[in-house]
Amino acid sequence: MKEKTLQQETVFAGKLLHVRRDQVELENGHKSEREFCMHPGGVGILPLTDDGQVLLVEQFRYPYGCELLEIPAGKLERGEEPLVCGIRELKEETGCTAREMIPLGCIYPTPGYVDEKLYLYLARGLTRGEASPDEDEFLNLVQMPLETLLQRIMSDEIHDAKTVVSALKTARLLKEEHHG
Questions:
Q1: DSSP 178
Q2: What do you get for the CA distance between the two ends of the chain, in Å?
Q3: Which of 65, 76, 64, 72 is nearest to 97 (CA)?
Q4: How many helices and strands in the chain, by DSSP H and E?
Q5: Using 50, 70 and 90 to split pLDDT, how confident is the model at 131?
Q6: For 129-140, what is the mean pLDDT?
Q7: Catalytic site residues?
Q8: Is the dihedral of CA 159, 164, 167, 172 positive or negative?
Q9: For residues 118 and 107, is the Cβ–Cβ distance under 8 A?
Q10: Where does residue 95 fall: left (phi above 0), alpha (psi -120 to 50 degrees), or beta otherwise?
Q11: What confidence score (pLDDT) does residue 1 get?
């Protein structure tokens, strides 16, 4: 299945997002419109301490009008490698550096209308330091056992997609490591 792009139009160009409206030709020859947000992509990091604690950030998320509990994350700079971004964001938001950054894959958080790619990592072998969030970031650092995070995900208390995916993938990875 494929759609052929016939025409592209920028509808809005903001600091974070650009909105584009494309005219496309469908497989059956009919024409249609596709509107979507162009996003530079990002990285999410699940920091796991040696004793099984996860470091999360709690922050107000304007679109939802409430605080969300999430793994540390940030936007990719133009041309930046995801691992470099992950190391930077981990340090900025938690103050930690990691001995090991294990890739957990790439997800498409909202493929219906955003082209964002989100690269996920598990950070282990943490060394604590001083956090230095961006001047417009107001974060509370929250620590809890991975098992508690998984329970809160399964009881529908945690809604952030990158956090849910990272925690579930980490739990599976640890189970595979433990069982060989």
A1: H
A2: 39
A3: 72
A4: 3, 10
A5: confident
A6: 76
A7: 135
A8: positive
A9: yes
A10: left
A11: 81
For residue 63, what are its two tokens?
């679109």
Q: Is residue 134's pLDDT more than 80?
A: no
Q: Which amino acid is at 136?
A: D
* Percent of the residues in the chain that have a pLDDT greater than 90, as a whole number: 88
Calculate the CA dihedral of residues 137, 140, 146, 151 and round it to 10 degrees.
Answer: -100
Which uninterrupted H or E stretch holds 153?
helix 146-154
Mean pLDDT score, 130-159: 89
3-state secondary structure 75-134: ECCCCCCHHHHHHHHHHHHHCCEEEEEEEEEEECCCCCCECCCEEEEEEEEEECCCCCCC
Q: What pLDDT, on the 0 to 100 scale, is given for residue 133?
A: 66
pLDDT band per the 50, 70, 90 thresholds, residue 120: very high
Average pLDDT across the chain, whole number: 94
Long-range interactions of 135-139: CB distance < 8 A, separation 24+: 137/59, 137/93, 138/59, 138/60, 139/57, 139/58, 139/59, 139/93
